[in-house]
């Protein structure tokens, strides 16, 4: 089992920045991939970014590429999402997820955190 706890959400003006953190505990040694997802009110959950920890390769949704950066600190079992140039359309609950194997799809993750709210005002 893996437990994930997100933090760092909040209210920010458009153009501002936030850094989200996701701390993993439990069977962290077996985690292959970690991802960030978000869900806005009335919308489907969408992929934001992911990292394959063993090879430190990151992947981003087109909507955040160039603005968001995902990083991985294996020593702390924590991943981060640095969000710059935030837009009102980035407003959502942001979730962290973990998977023990290469995900078969963008959304193929076994463990999910509770989420942290990010609100971007115009």
Mind telling me the C-alpha Rg?
Answer: 13 Å
Topology order in helix (H) and strand (E) letters: EEEEEEEEEEE
Could you list the spans in which at least 5 consecutive residues all have pLDDT below 50? none
Sheet with the most strands? Answer: 7 strands, mixed
What form results from the Cα inertia axes? globular
> What is the mean pLDDT?
95
Distance between the termini: 40 Å
* Relative strand content: over 45%
Helix fraction? under 10%
Write the layout of secondary structure elements.
Elements: E1 2-7, E2 10-13, E3 18-26, E4 33-39, E5 46-52, E6 57-60, E7 68-73, E8 78-83, E9 92-99, E10 111-112, E11 116-121
Parallel strand pairs: 2-11
Antiparallel strand pairs: 1-3, 3-8, 4-5, 4-9, 5-6, 7-8, 9-10, 9-11
Structure description:
The structure is a single chain. With 122 residues, the chain is mostly beta strands. The protein contains no helices and eleven strands. Strands 2, 4, 5, 6, 9, 10 and 11 form a seven-stranded mixed beta sheet that branches. The N and C termini lie far apart (40 Å). The model has no long low-confidence stretch (mean pLDDT 95).
